Amino acid sequence: MSELTSSRRHGKLGRTLLWVSIALSVLLLGFVTALSIRTNPYYSDAEANGISKYIFIEECREQLAEARELETLRGVLQQTGQLRQGQNLHADIGAEPGEIVANTQAVPGGGWALSAPANISVEGQSSVLGQLGMQCTHDKAQNRTVAQIQLPGAQ
């Protein structure tokens, strides 16, 4: 018989160390998971505010891209010759993710509010024409999210 298959060798210590290392790995993974869930910046009480903070921010992005103020701005830019006929404008939140999360606040009575700059660009181009203020709100009672761009000179 070979030394590796000898019945005189016992692998109890090796198996024990393997099970201890597996148990420690599972405990460490559980601890890291619990720690990251508690410090998740997107964590929110969806029941109290109507939707989660993450979904609210995503809905704000979608609503901002379709904001009716973009049409008004497009008409003004076409009249002044800064935008060619057939070109469309695109708007996106112009803040860093950390700033977006920090600026998203729960509204008393349920809902969310976000104020941030909006980057305005020509659709299909990466260069930014400028920034305008943006406000986005979610009304829990109506279960509706609305984003508005603050046009210059409009009140």
Please render the helix and strand layout as text.
Layout: H1 12-38, H2 46-49, H3 53-65, H4 69-79, E1 89-93, H5 97-103, E2 105-106, E3 111-122, E4 128-139, E5 144-150
Antiparallel strand pairs: 1-3, 2-3, 3-4, 4-5
Quick structural summary:
The protein contains five helices and five strands; from the N terminus they run ααααβαββββ.
Notes on the protein architecture:
- The chain has 155 residues and is an alpha+beta fold.
- The chain has 2 domains: 1-39; 46-150.
- It contains 5 helices and 5 strands, in the order ααααβαββββ.
- Strands 1, 2, 3, 4 and 5 form a 5-stranded antiparallel β-sheet that branches.
- A hairpin with a 4-residue loop joins β2 and β3.
- The protein starts with 11 loop residues before the first helix and ends in a 5-residue tail after the last strand.
- The mean pLDDT is 85.
On the 0-100 scale, what is the average pLDDT? 85
Q: How much helicity do the residues have?
A: 40-55%
What is the makeup of the main sheet?
5 strands, antiparallel
Q: Indicate the radius of gyration in whole angstroms.
A: 27 Å
Domains (count): 2
Shape: elongated
Structural class: alpha+beta
% residues in beta strands? 15-25%
- The separation of the N and C termini measures 92 Å
Q: Could you tell me the number of beta strands?
A: 5
Helix/strand order, N-terminal first: HHHHEHEEEE
Keywords summarizing the entry:
155 residues, alpha+beta
